[in-house]
Structures are given as structure tokens and as C-alpha cells.
Amino acid sequence: MTIQAFYPIGTPGRPWGDAEVAAWRARQAVRRSYAADVLSAIETLRARFDVSEYGRLDYASDSYPLFAIRSRGWRDELPVALVTGGVHGYETSGVHGALQFVDRHAADYAGRINLLVAPCVSPWGYERIHRWNPDALDPNRSFRADSPAQESAALMRLVAPLRDRVRVHIDLHETTDSDESEFRPALAARDGKPFEPGTIPDGFYLCADSADPQPAFQQAVIAAVARVTHIAPADPDGTIIGSPVVAPGVIEYACRQLGLCAGITDAPYRTTTEVYPDSPRATPEQCNAAQAAAIRAAIDFALAHGALEGGTESA
């Protein structure tokens, strides 16, 4: 893979200011439609699920409604399963895997656990196939108090009333070749740092929360996905994207410290999926199916471990 020596915006060694962010934003073009791809799919689910608008993103001439899908017949005595997709808008299977799960599998959990699904947290990024929002901010580094990212702040407001009742949270992501060819070089340029090339893992993997990694839970998800697509091997140094592999297909991140979506609740079971859509061994359909399989395995494990009372763990 050929990597540019310098990103075409900014001055090497100097962080971006407003002019550089504006220049970067001017380069971003709409490449697909949130309304056609996502809102139309959500509309077809209204007959079976409760759909509500939990926020709206207003960026100059662009305005995007944000929708959440809930179980019909929500029962307050049941715990909650939270599914989030499209926190990075360019990670396509996170969005469509979440919608596929709702359409094909969510009904299986009726009366057992309440489902709350936010399938496309970052629609501006979805349309432009980009990781950032228009302010050149990464929503998945912005889940913290007084978040500067509208996308992150809106999701946190949605989840806040249920935060202590969430038993399982699965956040759906992808690792793509463009991470190395575009997004990490852009990040280095934005922050005025040198770009250090890395590697892209070939296959599915998980990022557990290092504060509470729940290894048996992570392995249950890996085992389910392995029936759909291949699991990423470690690099020769025993890492995936530079982080030590703690079990087959599993690394750990400090979710809250990094402002990651997977850290927004106290769910005993939480993880971040990473699908590799650029692999010659995986089709788009497999990628969506892998995300849906991961969601099902995560919820099934959570249901099988602990009392079903408000999301609290049994003794």
C-alpha cells in the first residue's frame, strides 16, 4: 500500500486551525444517501417496533434526524440491551448489521430483554463515507461530559435515563484499508504529529473494555462470529492494531478514558466489534451477518448470566 509522505492539508508538525478544518471539510462530498439507505429501512420497521427521533444534527445546510428503535411492549422490570452502529459513519456494516438484526432477529427477544438500537449515530459521516463529523472530530473519541461532538452528545442523552439498567452494550464497527490510507494520515496531520504506518488485520476482532474485560463473554461472541466469517490473527508481534491480543480475536481498550461509545453505560457485558470489509474472504452480506451474529451472541450470553432484574448482576 502506498502512503503519502504528507497529508495534503496543513503544515507538517503544526496542528490544524479553523482554516485547515474548513479546507478539509470542503473536500468531503456526499457519496450515498442516509435517507435512501437508512431512514427508508427504519421506516419499514415501524409496524413492529417503536421508533423515535432522539435528536437532530444541524450542520450548515445539512440537517439529519437521529432515530432509535425500541422493543414494542417495553417492560420496565426487564434489563436493556443497547446496540449502536454507525458511530463512525463510514463503517457500513455497523449500520446495516444493526438494521438486519432488528428486522430478522429482534422479535426473538420479546418479553426477555428490552432492546434499544441506534443504527446510525453519525449520518453526516455515513453520507460522506468518513470517520469524522464536519468539525473534523471523531465521535468515538468524544463520549464524555460536555462532548464537542453533536453525535456523541445526542446518544448520551438518549441513553442517560437507562444507563444503570443496560445489561449488554455492543457497539458495531469496522477496520478498513482506508484507516491506513486516509484516516490515520488525516489524524496525524490534524494533530500536527508524524504519521507512523501500521497494519490492517484481516478478519473480525473485538475490543473489550480493559476496566472490565469479561473474557468469557468476549469469547462467546468470537465463537458465534467465527461461524460467519474469519477471525483476525495476531500480527507477528502478538498485537492487533498495535494492542496486545489477550485471547483469540480480542484486544482491550480503556473505553471511558478514550471517550469510546462502549464506555457510556455500566453494562456488565460490553464490547466493540471490528469487521474487515476489504478482505477478499468476506462479502458485504457476510459483514452484515457477522454484526448481527455478534449482537445475538452478546445478548444470549447476557441473558444466560445473571438475574433479569433491572440489569443487575446476580450473586
UniProtKB/TrEMBL annotation:
Q: Give the required cofactors.
A: Zn(2+)
Enumerate the CDD domains for this protein.
Answer: M14_REP34-like
Which residue range or ranges hold the Peptidase M14 domain?
30-306
Q: Which GO terms describe its biological process?
A: proteolysis
Entry's Gene Ontology molecular function annotations: hydrolase activity, acting on ester bonds; metallocarboxypeptidase activity; zinc ion binding
Transmembrane stretches, start-end = none
InterPro entries on file = AstE_AspA_cat, Peptidase_M14
UniProt entry tagged with the keyword Zinc: yes
One family name in Pfam for this protein: AstE_AspA_cat
Keyword Cell cycle part of the UniProt annotation: no
Q: Which UniProt keywords apply?
A: Hydrolase, Metal-binding, Zinc
Q: Which family does it belong to?
A: Belongs to the peptidase M14 family.
Can you name this protein?
Peptidase
Provenance organism: Rhodanobacter denitrificans
Q: What is the lineage of its organism?
A: Bacteria, Pseudomonadati, Pseudomonadota, Gammaproteobacteria, Lysobacterales
